């Protein structure tokens, strides 16, 4: 639409019409007949229109959700949002002379310390984008440490999203990703693992609890690692480490995964938070940045970027990773949340989740239309198999505003009508009983 203002702008640019500004775009790439756009509206009208669109969305807090599979609906303390919303945190960016931003560096240092305390590892980086990329970076790191071999063993029970991202990374690096099957308990088949070990295997990844919710015997796999030459990557649920053995105490070389469970609500598109920790002797191959604590010449405590082996700072062929930044604000949220919980708090949280999971599991065992295909120990989720029609089951659930879990046939190629059902501390016995009633 031509207006006096448009004509003045065009004249200032030496153009007669808008088409003159688009002359650099080949005609074959232009939309034939132009683009049909509605007339402009006021800010309030736009706000109202967007509200009407948003009203079509399902509001998670209005539904009884048992979705899991890597992203969990935990309660995040109000203090987390209150502190992270402060402008000095929300708008902060680590400057290129990082040491002038001591507050930012100290926050990252505290995050690293908490990750090390939980995982039993000696060094953590400043965070990564999400759990999937953290695991892929861990595998690349393992290959750099091992210096030979092209095969990475992963359990067939690894989260399929993690495996897909790993496969994408591996394709361009000449890495072969080979599956290890699960046994009758739902855990990694250790005999199959040993049968696939060879001089060409540089890494083995183990997720615990795995995608089926089954807790792996990471210490036993650690003993297999001692008898063979490969690097051992463990992918834990951070909350479960309030009760379960820390990977660093079970022989892991690298610990990586998703930390959303301690700092953020589930949200389509994120944000998420990848963590990666390792042993001290592996630190030179760790991706991203590491903040360290030191003293200046006057003896005052200070924080510095101890390592930053990324492309932005050193030659590309020498970089450990092409990661450009880290999830500093989300890492701060994790730091606040874990600090509020403390050592006893995270143990109590893990115990509460475990008790609710076992409350549900024991009652599912009494259902005639349900079978539990895996007998292994679980922490916060487990698989059920039902002979009920899945479409009817989900229709009944939707009518009652219940999200009964993830359909594994869509995600893991599993046979039968299997659901992965997750539980957090937010689930009440009444909400769990409402889920159970669907299977009557």
Q: Could you write a compact summary of the structure shown?
A:
InterPro entries: GcvPA, GDC-P_N, GDC_P, PyrdxlP-dep_Trfase, PyrdxlP-dep_Trfase_major, PyrdxlP-dep_Trfase_small. With 440 residues, this protein is of the alpha/beta class.
Task: Please supply descriptive tags for the structure shown above.
7-stranded mixed beta sheet, 4-stranded antiparallel beta sheet, Aspartate Aminotransferase, domain 1, Aspartate Aminotransferase, domain 2, 440 residues, alpha/beta, 36% helix, single chain
Describe the structure.
- It contains 14 helices and 15 strands.
- The protein has helices spanning 4-12, 18-21, 43-54, 78-84, 87-90, 102-119, 131-146, 160-171, 190-196, 218-227, 328-364, 390-399, 408-411, 429-437; strands at 64-65, 123-124, 151-155, 176-180, 201-208, 231-236, 254-258, 274-278, 289-295, 301-308, 370-371, 381-386, 402-403, 406-407, 418-422.
- The strands form four sheets. A seven-stranded mixed β-sheet has the order 2-8-7-6-5-3-4, sandwiched between helices. A four-stranded antiparallel β-sheet has the order 11-12-15-14. A two-stranded parallel ribbon has the order 1-13.
- α10 links the parallel β5 (201-208) and β6 (231-236).
- α6 (102-119) packs parallel to α11, α7 packs across α8 (160-171) and α11 packs across α14.
- The chain starts with a helix and ends with a helix.
- This is glycine dehydrogenase (aminomethyl-transferring).
In DSSP terms, counting alpha (H) and pi (I) runs of 4 or more, how many helices? Answer: 14
Number of strands: 15
The amount of helix comes to 25-40%
Alpha carbon gap, first and last residue: 63 Å
Which percent band covers the strand fraction?
Answer: 15-25%
The neighbouring-strand order within the major sheet is 2-8-7-6-5-3-4
- Give the CATH topology of the largest domain: Aspartate Aminotransferase, domain 2
Rounded to the nearest angstrom, the radius of gyration is 25 Å
Structural category: alpha/beta
